[in-house]
Design brief:
Helix content is 49%, strand content 11%. It is α+β, with helices and mostly antiparallel strands. It has a single domain (10-470), classed as Cytochrome P450 (Cytochrome p450, Orthogonal Bundle), CATH 1.10.630. It contains 18 helices and 12 strands. The protein binds protoporphyrin IX containing FE. Protoporphyrin IX containing FE (HEM) is lined by residues 86, 102-103, 114, 278-279, 282-283, 286-287, 290, 345-346, 349, 411-413, 417, 419-421, 424-425.
Length: 471
């Protein structure tokens, strides 16, 4: 039994099933499927999707194959990746905001951009950026500590702000023309409106037909484009005078200096702009959601919280060095990885097959088929995980982690299009979580358990109200 004050014992906590839509056995009609897609795409998955390695058939988008077999996943995303392109629906949703940035580019343009941008995110480059992450993390803790002790706040909003502040610092040394706040607001608006699947897209309506969501997002997108242009122009002027905003290059300095290792060519100004928006778009909400769900899961499990606090207290002041060491904050890292298993910030990857294919020797994928690899399904698949719905960070500790099949855990995707910001995001999330838990304690304060809802990223529906106290 749970105590009157809501506290749970460690043993009770281990049996809790963190909130998620309960899958149904029955099949859904087309209209119901459409409504579910619009409201929360997570609810289209039925019990068989969590049990069967491959589910294929006619769907709303024509013939579709949902793959949760690690060998077949590897085939599609890695071994025969050249046969698959990002599907049109994904491009329609993302492209108006992100332009020809790395996330939405295809073919030769993508290859060239990836080669050119890869050096910006190597472990060494991320190590150099890590020092810049601690400042915004510490300032967030300061700001939260100044609030009345025990106050209830929407942690999702705080996490969105801190990941945004970290990007503003690592990308622009915080030098944003027009102010970081206005830029951040436009970004939020973009995700609010753009991230929702429009039924017209699903039905394949022509792109000139206005989508209400996109139409509403237009001012936010134009605002971005103008701001980004100004930021680049100001930086170029600074460089022309032989200056940089900080002692070490930030991501914008590196973007402007990046050269294709094969041709020596730099990126065009339009490409630089598109990639700035892409890095913010791809790297901000994702990391914020990982942190938000981690804080929620920690609040549910007192033994995890205790162990985390002990690990963090035993770590020195230099959180960046500890996060980069890979050993000193191992449990903190494991908690983030397990939070992203249960609540993968990017819950679904999709591709279109360019030619007929056979994956893992048994899965026929006809030309034109929509192929879905859903980290959400994979991470909760009954054939791949023991107690898949339970929060058990120990799975990711050294010794246990090696036993997880590589293609069963895909928060950052895999293959040539794997997340370029993976190391950046992990170091950032460890630093922020450690900085927060060193000083503060979080308890869920919502009347109901937070339900994950899939927009572009996986968010808690209605935010994440938590009571924040000083430790
Ligand atoms: C927890 C945080 C993050 C998660 C879960 C995440 C997840 C992903 C996933 C799953 C993909 C592959 C999409 C696909 O294959 O269709 C991806 C791609 C990408 N991510 Fe991340 N991401 C995170 C943070 C970041 C950060 C911090 C940045 C940049 C600063 C970033 C930049 C990108 C870019 C540019 C791509 C496109 C790569 C390409 O297509 O070559 N991401 N991300």
């Amino acid at each position: 039994m749970i105590a009157a004050d809501g506290a749970v014992s460690a043993a009770q906590a281990r049996r809790l099933r963190p909130p998620a839509p309960v899958p149904e056995e029955r099949e859904f009609g087309r209209l119901e499927l459409l409504l579910r897609l619009r409201r929360n795409p997570l609810t289209i998955w039925r019990t068989r999707h969590f049990r069967e390695p491959i589910v294929a058939g006619e769907g709303l988008f024509g013939y579709g194959v949902v793959i949760s077999d690690p060998d077949a996943v590897r085939h599609v995303l890695v071994d025969n990746a050249a046969n698959y392109r990002k599907d049109d629906l994904q491009r329609t949703i993302l492209a108006p905001g992100l332009g020809e940035g790395l996330l939405t580019a295809e073919g030769e343009a993508w290859k060239r951009a990836r080669r050119t941008l890869a050096p910006l995110f190597t472990p060494r480059a991320v190590a150099a950026l890590a020092e810049r992450m601690t400042g915004p993390a510490e300032r967030t803790v300061e700001r939260m500590s100044r609030r009345r002790d025990g106050r209830i706040v929407d942690i999702a909003a705080d996490m969105t702000r801190v990941t945004y502040d970290i990007l503003a610092e690592t990308m622009f040394s915080n030098a944003i023309a027009g102010g970081a706040e206005a830029f951040g607001k436009a970004l939020t608006r973009y995700f609010e409106t753009q991230g929702r699947i429009d039924p017209l897209d699903v039905l394949g309506a022509p792109s000139w037909l206005p989508r209400i969501g996109r139409w509403m997002a237009r001012p936010a997108i134009s605002f971005f484009e103008a701001q980004v242009k100004t930021i680049i122009a100001e930086r170029l002027a600074l460089h022309a005078g032989g200056h940089r905003p900080g002692p070490k290059p930030d991501l914008l300095d590196s973007l402007l200096a990046a050269r294709d290792p094969e041709t020596g060519a730099g990126l065009s100004e339009a490409e630089i702009g598109a990639n700035i928006v892409t890095f913010i778009g791809a790297g901000h909400e994702t990391t914020a959601n990982a942190l938000t769900w981690a804080l929620y899961l920690i609040a549910l499990t007192p033994d995890v919280r205790e162990r985390l606090e002990a690990e963090i207290d035993a770590t020195g002041d230099d959180l960046a060095a500890a996060a980069l060491s890979g050993e000193r904050l191992a449990f903190t890292r494991a908690v983030i990885e397990e939070a992203m298993r249960l609540y993968p910030p990017v819950p679904s990857l999709s591709r279109t097959a360019l030619a007929d294919d056979l994956a893992a020797g048994r899965c026929l994928i006809p030309k034109g088929a929509l192929v879905v690899v859903s980290p959400y399904l994979l991470h909760r698949h009954e054939t791949l995980w023991r107690a898949p719905d339970r929060f058990r960070p120990e799975r990711f500790l050294p010794g246990a982690r090696e036993g997880i099949p590589r293609y069963a855990y895909l928060p950052f995707g895999a293959g040539p299009r794997v997340c370029i910001g993976q190391q950046f995001a992990m170091v950032e999330a460890v630093i922020v979580l450690a900085a927060l838990l060193r000083r503060l304690r979080f308890d869920h304060a919502g009347a109901e358990a937070p339900m994950p809802v899939q927009r572009i990223t996986l968010r808690p529906d209605g935010g994440m109200p938590m009571r924040v106290r000083a430790r």
